[in-house]
Amino acid sequence: MTLKKSTYLLLTLFFSLSVSSFAQRGTRVGYIDMNVILESVEEYGKASQLLDKNIEKWKKEIELKKIQLKQFEDQLNTERILLTPELIKDREMEIKDFASEIVNLQEKRFGPQGDMIIQRSKLIQPVQDQVLTVVKQIAEEKKYDFIFDRSSSVTMLYSAKIYDISDLVIKKINRQQRIQNRKEALEKLKTKTNSLNN
Question: At 151, is the secondary structure helix, strand, or coil?
Fold first, then answer.
């Protein structure tokens, strides 16, 4: 059984059990589009831009190493007829070591435990956590039983726009951001006033 089929079967079973248990009052279901929400959050945009810059820098770093490797290989091929077998062997070992350094660098930057994954979680995870907190608050306030993310791997065959609470989440996040900005501005003003008075 494929992952999609098992997920679909699990969701169907989950819904049928939920519908029977909530039949007295009716099940309230909503959904969000995490991608739309994240793209509208200013902090997420800044974090994504910073991550993209780092990724570009790492790609260039690896590309330069590959160019260098090609130059070493070409130089060895050009000088091969002039070198002794021992020197050729030494140079080939150096080239092999350099090639494995490149592979290690690629793994360090883009591997499953690499810099890209680490930075993505450092930069983007706090924003995603904020979104999830807001979704939970809305679910509790509006008495939703289930809220799904339509951008995730769970397949939504149909969804009426009326159940999309993405805009509500965006408004709440923006409101929280404005409140935070005002607090920071007041703190700066207090600090400035205190420094002028002293």
Answer: coil
| Structural domain range at position 151 | 3-197
**What pLDDT was estimated at residue 99?**
95
Identity at 38, one-letter amino acid code: L
Scan for tokens 């969804």, then name that residue.
Answer: 159
Q: Which amino acid is at 103?
A: V
Question: What's the average model confidence in pLDDT over 36-55?
Answer: 86
Q: Quote the strand ranges of the chain, DSSP E.
A: 29-32, 146-149
Q: What is the mean predicted confidence (pLDDT) over 57-73?
A: 95
Q: At what angle do helices 166-197 and 115-142 cross, to 10 degrees?
A: 110
| Each residue's pLDDT tens digit, 108-149 | 999 999 999 998 888 878 888 888 888 888 888 888 887 888
Neighbours of 179 (CB within 10 A): 10
Torsions phi, psi of 182, nearest 5?
-65, -45
Q: Distance between CA 105 and CA 166 in Å, rounded?
A: 39
Closest CA to 163 of 176, 178, 148: 148
Angle, CA 79 vertex, CA 74 and CA 81 arms, to 5°: 125
